[in-house]
Each structure stands twice: as C-alpha cells, then as structure tokens.
Amino acid sequence: xxxxEGDTLTVSGRAHQLxxxxxxxxxxxxxxxxxxxxxxxxVHTNAEGQLAVIGVLIIEGPHNAAFDPIWANLPATKDVExxxxxxxxxxxxxxxxxxTAYRYxxxxxxxxxxxGVKWFVMTTxxxxxxxxxxxxxxxxxxxxxPVQPLNGRPAxxxxxxxxx
Length: 164
Fold this sequence. Notes:
Layout: E1 8-11, E2 14-24, E3 30-31, E4 34-35, E5 38-45, E6 51-60, H1 68-71, E7 100-107, E8 115-122, E9 126-128, H2 130-139, E10 156-159
Parallel strand pairs: 6-8, 6-9
Antiparallel strand pairs: 1-2, 2-5, 3-4, 5-6, 7-8, 7-10
C-alpha cells in the first residue's frame, strides 16, 4: 500500500515520511524463537533516502475493524497492482497502543536486501481475526524472508522513534 498522507516517524531528530506499508505471512521476525502468523511493515524514508521500518507482529484474535478498508480491497489475484485512490486508512489505528519496540540496525527483507535500515519491531502484537488472516494468506503465504542471525548487532528495547 503506497502512502502519501504525510505521516512521519522521527528517528535521531530526523523526520522520515511513511511511503508504504505491506504484509508478510508468516512473520519475518521472531520473539524468543516464536514466529507469528503475519507481520506488517511500515516503510519510512528521510530526505537523504535513509530507511526506517516499523514492524508490527500479528497474532490471531478478534476482528480488527481498522483493517477493513484494506482487506475489503485485497486483490483477487497475486502480482496485480491496483490504484485505489478512494481508500482512507487511519494508519495510527493499525498500530498497537504501546509504543515500545525492539530496535536494531538491519537490512531490507526483500532484494536487494540493502543494509543500513533502522528497524523498530513493536513489542506488542496486534490481532486480526482468523478470517482476516485467511483472507490474506490465501493470496500471499510464504512471502517472508527467513529469520537472519543478528551477527553481533545489538537489539535493544526502546520507544518507536527513540534515539540511536
């Protein structure tokens, strides 16, 4: 979902604009070795092209109405881009209420897997219903990069948009 509404994430005092968000099934991050049914990535970039990504882990739970505008417009088939200008999504409503996250320096999870990405993986997952998860995974499943080793990089707990 390309985004042009002007939402920002401040990292080290620098504004990063939200440019798009997308989903993976199953999750690309794990917590204590546990993989989640899905994960949402909110991709932000600053004026110099540096990337910051918020990862939101998704568990099965009650229906999440904040996702209705997105799920009502899922494509009927894979690999087809649709322009839906009329869709209004409250991006803040897609996020967990707690703003704590695991923070680390990593890479993009899709080719070219470029390094230098500031990752913020929310510590609190959000819930989608089994029906919502199934609607997505029927179209997209296995679109996740396998978990990568930290390779000595520290992962610390922080608040989203916290300091480096």
